[in-house]
Amino acid sequence: MIQGKHIAVSGIECICAAGLNLKDCVDSMFSNIRNVATPSGFSSNHKTVYPVFEIPGSSPFLQNPQIFKTGQLALEAAHGAVKKAGLDKKNLQQKRVGVCIGTTVGSSLNNEKFYQEYRSGKDPDMAPIKRFLRSNPADLIAREYNLSGPCQTIVNACSSGTDAIGIGASWIQAGICDVVIAGGADELCRVTYNGFISLLIVDSSPCRPFDVSRAGLNLGEGAAIFVLESEKSLTERKIAPSAFICGYGSSSDAYHLTAPKPDGAGLKRAITDALEESGVFASDIAFVNAHGTGTENNDRVESMVLDLMLNGVPFHSTKGYTGHTLGASGAIEAAFTSAFLVAGKIPSSIGFSKKDPELHSSPQAENKQIDGNFAISESLAFGGNNSVLVIGRGSEPL
Amino acid sequence: MRIYVKGIGTAGGFGCGVEKLVSALSNGESRTKAVTLGVKGKAEVEAQVFVTDTSALFSFIPKKSLRRINNYSKLALLGASLAIEDSGIKDLDRTRMGIIIASGYGAMNTTFSFLDSVIDEGKDEHASPIHFSNSVHNSAAAHVSILMKIEGPSLTVSQFEMSFPSALLTARRWLEEKRVDSVLLGGVDEFSGVLGYCGQRLFKKDDVSGIKPFEFNKQTAIPGGGAAFFILTRDTDNDSEYCIIEDVSIGKLTTDKISIPEDSYLFIGADGNKISGQKYQHFLNNKNIVAAYSPLYGSFPAAAALDLAVAGVSMKKNRIFASPEYSGLKDGLRIIKEESKINHEKICCLKICDHDEYALIRVSKNNS
Predict the structure, then answer these.
(1) pTM exceeding the 0.95 threshold for the entire prediction
(2) Chain A interface test: which of B125, B155, B351, B361 (most A C-beta within 10 Å)
(3) ipTM
(4) Which residues 22-81 of A are in CB contact (within 8 Å) with B?
(5) CA-CA distance, B316 to A367, in Å (whole number)?
(6) Contact assessment for residue A287 and residue A314, using Cβ atoms and an 8 Å cutoff
(7) B250 vs A contacts (CB less than 8 Å)
(8) What residue segments make up the domains of chain A, in order of their start?
(9) What is the mean pLDDT of residues A111-140?
(10) Which of the following CATH numbers is that of domain A7-393: 3.40.47.10, 3.30.420.40, 3.20.20.150, 3.40.50.2300?
């Protein structure tokens, strides 16, 4: 693994149930508020109603029926991040700009109404198919800004957003792009709702990551976008970075489709690689934003690995504030991590109150001051992916 | 950085393995199969498609291990197994190997099977967990990593026609960064009846038989599925490689000036789709000798990986294969009409998508 430069972030924006911009998200988390409710965007006939973390459908940026909600979320976050970076459509077109976005639902052709009509022998309206074809989130952003660089939509399940930022940073590192718009976006939908419930890993109450009584995850939706920028481009524009992507590590468990490897070997390697690439020591890490879904298996493996590799480093899960936003979660949590480094504090792991004696370590139960310039954001995913970012402190990202 | 192609595994309508691909290239033939699109007895339409028989996978992986694995993942496993076998590398360090899969549509059939599980009884609680977990795009990469014990990073990319070139860009970065020592890179798409039906509804096919990649103003696409996998490394051991991947560039036709060296063959990814097909016309001139091989494997996003496989095979065999179909080609343009010895050191594979995005993969012979 070659030690790389720390890649500057010139703008970050985030939308999720915790808030419709990064500042509101951070403020609500430090106030320990969680906006969890029964689904309003779709109906289901499960006997139990499972709570979700939804973005109000009435939000002004969600009114375009021509594209998936995932795409609309990605675009809104991209507009915010580009604006914060002090860029616009015109000056982006003068640079070599790539787009790298993680998602799950945003790349899935799974329209129930269309399929139901198709299988009943009707000729269904093709609008849902056309909507799918124009909704690939990376394509969508590239088209919106008329960008000329490489475009990649990453569909790595729940680590997609983390991977997209790591790969986007690599494009800057290699000089392939001057700017990369990177992040993740995902929407709540009936298909994932039914799917996760079928796996018996959804909590019927608000989730409780790392708690002894934890009973699974809650689904959420959102998007977070980072504007990654080369040193040369930033220097020319005289912009102070909001954060740095210092290192990225990723590995496979090669163990099971939906369960993490019990010894955490894959996660250990991802952390090791991310630290190695960043040149940052474990002792320099101020805190860890854990994947912390609230599922039995995830939290067990993650707490064990954190205890082993980053013993004593405070960690927390923010999924109690956002739900599990799947392909967006890695980017959303990287955005939070960047903001918390600047704030010098992390919010409590909401939902956690009682230590699990079987877990090796426990998250922060209260808001906590932190001190340091680097933090880690972790994502574990279906398929056994483990992806980790080492993030460096910049100036005000809000 | 140059990257070396050490092994290739291909599967498609032409059969399984590099030799079947070579045979199809030499004969200019590949088989399609008649299927019914739409729902039988109702809105049904007969169509020809390219489908892949994955039964050869049982010679690599026990049937028992494949019980719950869907067609999409089987295609990936087959391509991956063939590529690893083809590389002949016995001591491939799988802890230092990464896997990247590019797919335009992912596990389409399993996604619809999952919807069936809910729709059949009208009860959401009947949703199938097996179908759900296998419908996720990265399930194929997961099965490959689990069954082949590949512990490096795993990535799945879905960017329609640009999926494979953009995945290659990342494979190259992983090798440059020394994140891994080798990458198992593949393109996979399965045929889905629903997708075939959508294609018929959205694009009216002209009344011609077979894909006519140079009839740019006609819709002649034939859907299909298949896989092409590659073992990529940054190191060479003289001449055992298929070829060297010199460069992959991705950009916009509207802003970039694409440079195709005069001393290279040009393989175009035209596959009978009229919208993207028309955009290739501007790159045909009397300097480059061109070919399009989609008539041998069909029209699907991951077929860009098969174009690269043909380039690799051509370099290794030192043969350039006839373009299987060239009706509609304008006078004065140079096309590969007969199989012959290779005369150029380079091949460029050009893929263009509907939104003016392009990818150019430059491949050369390893003369070291």
Answers:
(1) yes
(2) B155
(3) 0.96
(4) 44-47
(5) 62
(6) yes
(7) 149-151
(8) 7-393
(9) 93
(10) 3.40.47.10
